[in-house]
Amino acid sequence: VFCMSAAKTRQAIGDCKFAVVLDTDFFSTFEMFLNTGRLAPNVNGGEKFFSHGRIEYYDIDNHPSSIEKERWREVYFKHSSFSEQAEYRATLKASDTFFERISAKPWVLERPIFKSPNGTPLPFDFKLELRSGVDDAGWRYVEFDVSEFQTNIVGEPSAIIAFGE
Predict the structure, then answer these.
(1) Per DSSP, what are the bridge partners of residue 90?
(2) For 112-133, b where at least 16 C-beta lie within 10 A, e where not — what string?
(3) What's the whole-model pTM score?
(4) What angle is formed at CA 11 by the lines to CA 10 and CA 15, rounded to 5 degrees?
(5) Tens-digit pLDDT profile for residues 67-121
């Protein structure tokens, strides 16, 4: 689970000294890519391999909607006492086997992309590399690498231009 705040407020980010502005479009791209065709896992019970969305806050007077056919939504509920966080999450439902496999060897996924549904293919594919590992504190992570795709779209890799004070 990757958690972030959709609000730029003191209550949401606390004493954090850094903030990054993200657009959810890239999460939608990952969701489309990872949950379709032969890449999609068994989705019995309404599960998704990858999902993203805003947290739905609940309390005794405001119950969350049913997740009977959308089990993937269960990680998107939180008690209303945390509502000032305005949380947004992205989740990957990866088994231990999957995690270990991409830790040993990155999983490279490529698919052609088109300018429009009936359009001409671009001269490069959408390429996503998934790697996993364990950080110094013992937390497991999965890294999504689209740097080659970004270079093809933008023409050069991202660069840090300046640091703020």
Answers:
(1) 2, 52
(2) ebeeeeeeeeeeeebbbbbbbe
(3) 0.78
(4) 55
(5) 888 888 899 999 999 998 889 999 998 889 989 999 999 999 888 888 777 788 8
